[in-house]
Design brief:
One of its GO terms (molecular function) is heme binding. A hairpin with a 3-residue loop joins strand 1 and strand 2. 68% of the residues lie in helices and 3% in strands. It is mostly helical. The chain has two domains: 70 residues, no CATH class; 206 residues, Orthogonal Bundle (Cytochrome p450), CATH 1.10.630.10. It contains 13 helices and two strands; from the N terminus they run H-H-H-E-E-H-H-H-H-H-H-H-H-H-H. Strands 1-2 form a two-stranded antiparallel sheet. The relative contact order is 0.09.
């Protein structure tokens, strides 16, 4: 933590401007903001709640149990993620995610993070070289499931998010774990979905509590996290057992991602943890991106011809 004079010196050296915009609050310590955010998550109004943040200013200061900042400014985001990456750390956010995810790119800093990122980068580069053919059967399944849901709906209205989650889970496990999640019995798939959704929901609340995450550990949270970790361990052990039996070359043809993780870590638990971090990115983040894309596309009408040409060219 920087002292006030150190903070000012850092800002001056890097051309930082003061953040003047703040979110108004009524209760002491801005606890009313925390409560509104707490209520928005289970009510599925988080996007609506966050939109109010975005409408205030590109970068705002927020004082909820301490001072923090929220930014959608491209320059600030670029600085955090790339140009000034070494100036930032996970901080207290690590505490909220560690129980579910363990060690990986979303809970690490410094050299450990760079090591994890490099291993993942190699694998995603390999996937780009393989092309998009692997996505075709899963896209077909997604379209079929949406069509069936539309036929079965009395109003013709379909909630796309569950279908997106199923699609992104199938693609992530197939491309990175070596076989699709759908290869497991339906009961196991249902158990994973319930455990993962519950554990992710609680972890999201713990993230918002920052250094007070330890306070919120409801009954069933650890059990749900354990169920998710056991599921990931199943895929890790299956691939590594196959490698021990058939050799690295044969295993790499089917389980390239897991084998590469093993070569970089030589620890089954760390391999499992990395799989969970990729699962979060591949399932939740991608599904939310698909939902967000459909949300904002109608507002991009003037840009549709350009977007269409760009999509076709790629």
């Amino acid at each position: 933590m920087l002292l006030p004079q150190e903070d000012e010196a850092f800002a001056s050296a890097h051309g930082c401007q003061p953040v003047l915009a703040t979110l108004p609050y009524r209760w002491p310590f801005a606890l009313d903001l925390l409560k509104r955010q707490w209520d928005a998550l289970p009510a599925k109004r988080l996007l609506e709640f966050q939109t109010a943040y975005m409408a205030t200013a590109p970068t705002i200061r927020i004082n909820v149990l301490g001072e923090g900042y929220i930014t959608t400014d491209p320059g600030n985001i670029e600085a955090v993620l790339t140009t000034r990456f070494d100036d930032f750390v996970m901080g207290v956010r690590r505490l909220g995610l560690l129980t579910l995810l363990g060690e990986g790119v979303f809970t690490q800093d410094g050299s450990a993070w760079k090591h994890s990122r490099e291993i993942l980068r190699r694998q995603f580069a390999r996937l780009r070289e393989d092309g998009l053919a692997a996505f075709t059967p899963h896209v077909d399944d997604l379209l079929d499931s949406v069509a069936r849901a539309s036929d079965e709906s009395a109003t013709g209205i379909v909630d796309l998010q569950p279908h997106f989650f199923e699609y992104t889970l199938a693609t992530t496990t197939d491309l990175l774990f070596g076989e699709p999640h759908s290869s497991l019995p339906q009961a196991d798939r249902d158990a994973l979905r319930d455990n993962f959704d519950y554990a992710s929901h609680i972890s999201a609340i713990r993230l918002r509590l920052a250094e007070f995450a330890w306070i919120y550990r409801p009954r069933g949270y650890r059990e749900a996290c354990r169920g998710v970790r056991q599921w990931a361990q199943f895929f890790a052990d299956k691939a590594l057992d196959y490698m021990e039996e058939h050799g690295e070359e044969a295993a790499s043809e089917r389980y390239a991602f897991i084998v590469d993780l093993w070569k970089g870590m030589h620890d089954r638990q760390l391999v499992r943890d990395q799989l969970l971090h990729v699962l979060i990115a591949g399932r939740d983040t991608t599904a939310c991106l698909l939902s967000w894309t459909l949300q904002v596309t109608p507002s991009l009408s003037p840009h549709k011809p350009k977007l269409t040409r760009s999509t076709v060219s790629t």
